[in-house]
Write a structure and sequence with these properties.
This protein has 164 residues and is an all-alpha fold. The chain is built from eight helices and no strands. It folds into two domains: 89 residues, no CATH class; 74 residues, no CATH class. Helix 6 runs antiparallel to helix 8.
Length: 164
Amino acid sequence: MMTRNALVAYSIGLLGLILVKVLAPGFYARQNIRTPVKIALITLVATQLMNLAFVWQLQHAGLALAISLGACLNAGLLYYKLRRHAIFLPQTGWMAFLAKVAAALLVMGAVLWWATGEDATWLKAAVWWRIGRLSILVVLGATTYFGSLWLLGFRLRHFAKRSL
């Protein structure tokens, strides 16, 4: 149960961690190392303050949550600076794309939450039952996510490389 709490807290920042890896090279390509370093220092201070605030109530999960929120802050500040300096200008259609992906993620999350069942069932069950059930949940999650995207209009051909 304690591991689950930490993983849930870390999952909040997964998108932030990915976005930092995507957004920071926008500065490096322009030979601007200062801005990402300044933002990283701000993030470090904010993460340490959040550690102090969260650890008393959430114990180890509070540390994971602080790291996750710090990653989101880092990504948000990088994005803000890229937009402010007109380094990154999103093309039309991005908001609709993100809304569809968010909707598919919400549907998948709701289905998995419903299908997971009670914690006590998982803790009392045999190992092979848990492995089988987890496998079913992985397939159900993928099917729900990609099915939702399909219902929202996504097709594989939309992701094919277009020639200029």
